C-alpha cells in the first residue's frame, strides 16, 4: 500500500529529570536547600516506521509516553542527546526548518492553538500569515474546511464562546489550513459527544484520502481507532508492546462487544438464561442487562432483543453497543504476555 516512509523513529529515548518530592515540612525544607532529582524514562528505545498515507493509532495507558513521542516527532521536544534518530518527512524535526513546519501539524485535544479572545476567523488569518499562504490558497483552503467542517456560523465567534465540539472543529481548521502532509493528533475526540466524534472522524478520513496525508493519532477511544486505523502501535512505559493490524488485535484480544439493554420491566429468568444476560443496575428503568456478544453476531443479537425475542423478553427502552475500552485490550495483552 505504501512505498515511501513518512516517519522513521529509531531507538528513540527521552528522559526527564524531575525534582524528587519529600513529604512533610522537614522534607520540604530539605528539598529547598538540596534538590534531589529522579529520572523518568518517558520514552525508551522506541523504534517504528510509518508509510506515507497511513493512519496509525498510537495507544497506551496514561503516562505511556505518547504525547512525549508526538512532541519529539514534531520537533517541540528534543530526544535524549545520546538517543537514536527521528526523520519526519525526511527532516530532523528538532531543526524546525520552515519547509518542515509547513508540512506538519500537531493538534492537542486538551490544548488550544486558537486565540481565546478573538473570533476564530482572526486566528485563521493569523495562520495565513505565519504559513505565508497566498490569498488564493487561503481562500480555497478555508472554503473547503468551512464546507467540510460546517464552520460558517462559527467564524465570527470568539473562541472562548465556543462549545468543546465547535472549538475542536475550529482547531482542526486552523491546524489544517496550510494543508499539512503529516497530522499528529493527540486525542482529537477527547470530551466530544458521539455525533461530534463521528463528524471529526469522517473529516479526518476524508482529509487522509483527499490529500494522501499521513496521520498518527493517540486516543483512549476505541471507536476512533476502529473507524480510522488499520494499524495500531501500542506502547507502555515508553516501549512498544504491539505494532500491527488493528483487526488482528481485536480478533485476539477483544472478540466481543458489549451490548447493554434497558428493559421496561424485569425479564423472565428463562430469557435471561437464553440470551446469556447479566443483570445490572442503572438505566432509565433500573432494569438493565448486559451481554458480551461476538462481533459478527452483534447486529443479529441486537435485532432479536429489539423484537423482544418473539415475546420472550419485555419491551426494550434503550440499547447500546459498546466497543471494548482501549485500556481493557491493553490489559489483556499484558495478561497474555
Ligand atoms: N515535561 C515533563 N517533565 C517531566 N516529566 C514529564 C514531562 N512530560 C511528561 N513527563 C512524564 O513522562 C511520562 C510520559 O508522559 P506522556 O505525557 O508522554 O504520557 P501519555 O502516554 O501521553 O499519557 P496520557 O495518556 O495520560 O496522555 C510520564 O511519566 C510523565 O509524567
Ligand atoms: Mg498524552
Keywords:
alpha/beta, binds magnesium ion, 337 residues, 13 helices, Rossmann fold
Helix/strand layout:
Blueprint lengths: L4 E15 L4 H10 L3 E15 L3 E5 L6 H8 L11 E4 L9 H4 L2 E5 L11 H11 L4 H15 L14 H13 L5 E5 L7 H18 L2 E5 L3 H7 L2 E6 L2 E7 H8 L2 E8 L5 H6 L3 E3 L7 E7 L3 H9 L1 H4 L4 E7 L3 H11 L1
Parallel strand pairs: 3-7, 3-8, 5-6, 6-7
Antiparallel strand pairs: 1-2, 1-4, 8-9, 10-12, 10-13, 11-12
Strand content: 25-35%
Number of strands: 13
CATH class of the largest domain: Alpha Beta
CATH architecture of the largest domain: 3-Layer(aba) Sandwich
Most strands sheet: 6 strands, mixed
Average pLDDT score: 90
Please name the CATH topology of the largest domain.
Rossmann fold
Gap from first CA to last CA: 30 Å
Give the helix tally: 13
Overall morphology: globular
**Bound ligands, each once:** adenosine-5'-triphosphate, magnesium ion
The helix-and-strand class reads alpha/beta
Secondary structure: helix percent: 25-40%
In short:
With 337 residues, this protein is of the alpha/beta class.
Could you describe the 3D structure shown?
The chain is of the alpha/beta class and 337 residues long. It starts with a strand and ends with a helix. The model has no long low-confidence stretch (mean pLDDT 90). The protein has 13 helices and 13 strands. The strands form 3 sheets. A 6-stranded mixed sheet has the order 5-6-7-3-8-9, with helices on both faces. Strands 11-12-10-13 form a 4-stranded antiparallel sheet, covered by helices on one side. Strands 2-1-4 form a 3-stranded antiparallel sheet, with helices on one face. The structure holds adenosine-5'-triphosphate and magnesium ion. The site of adenosine-5'-triphosphate (ATP) has 12 residues, from strand 1, strand 2 and helix 2.
